[in-house]
Amino acid sequence: MTMTTTIGLIRHGSTLWNKEGRIQGHTDNPLDEEGLQQAAKIAERLSGEEWELIYSSDMLRARQTAEIIAARLGLPVAGLLPGIREMHGGLLEGTTEQERVERWGKEWRTLELGLETNESGRLRGSRAIEELAARHPGRRILVVSHGAILRSTLGGLVPGLDLSRLLKNTSLTRIIKSGGAWTCDLYNCVEHHSI
């Protein structure tokens, strides 16, 4: 019989910088008031499902989201995973689009500004999720992380998945490992926002 491991990937709740359009990267911002409410809503949604473990990125906004979910589910946060912290934003961290254009011009995306590459994020995130699945085979695991690293990770684990839609705050994406291959049966779901 093939053992299936299910991982629910959750993007953290909103922060002030999300609202301002600032690149966060490794800057350790807390959730804002809306972010705390979003975390409570997804916690309520997940309380009606069967989850066994919860892990988080080691960054504050993800940890706060994970702790709210963990408290509602009656689970401890099983561990912090540096491998799924947000991708490093280099010189762009803390800037808005307008500030980037003012500082580096309209072609700022073509410049070398110290950003972590998609390939680096894909390898780092995929490795962290594969290690987690290997550590807890057959379990149902929640992982709270960040938008860019989650999309890069999904690109590595589920090649061909349409990643054109940016992940919304506290969206749930579910991936399943069975017979050595990953599939995604839910992407960027925020039905709980209307709770």
TrEMBL record:
Naturally occurring in which organism (per UniProt): Paenibacillus typhae
Lineage per the UniProt record: Bacteria, Bacillati, Bacillota, Bacilli, Bacillales
One of the record's GO cellular component terms: cytoplasm
GO molecular function, one term: phosphatase activity
Pfam families the record matches: His_Phos_1
Sites where the protein binds substrate: R11, H12, G13, S14, T15, L16, W17, N18, R61
Coiled-coil blocks: none
Active site: H12 (tele-phosphohistidine intermediate), E86 (proton donor/acceptor)
Protein name, as recorded: Probable phosphoglycerate mutase
CDD domains documented for this protein: HP_PGM_like (cd07067)
Origin: domain of life: Bacteria
SMART domains, alphabetized: PGAM (SM00855)
Record-linked Gene3D superfamilies: Phosphoglycerate mutase-like
